[in-house]
Specification:
The protein is an all-beta fold. Helix content is 0%, strand content 48%.
Amino acid sequence: MADTTITKIDGDHSPQGGMGQTHLASGVALSMRIWRDRPPSEAEPEVARDYETVGYVISGRAHLHSEGQTVVLEPGDSWVVPKGARHSYRILETLTAVEATHPPAQVHDRDAPPAG
């Protein structure tokens, strides 16, 4: 029989990641995280991750650079960064965004901060 257990995560008490993210619900194949009130910043170093990311901007603005493309992310925008795509973010205005990753980013140090 399949596992039918519902898991509820209290976002105010969720674990924090090494890059400022808060880990939310996580299943076997998919996880969520939120970036709350991240301040404006310079562009991060490019990184290629071993997972696919989809995200949604709640508030603020950012540039997403990936594989020679740049898009502006604003409230209501959603995006996809394919697994293995080299990318970086630059926060332009204090940002709150939710992301889902497949497979879960926090497993096996997949979302460890870039070395450097």
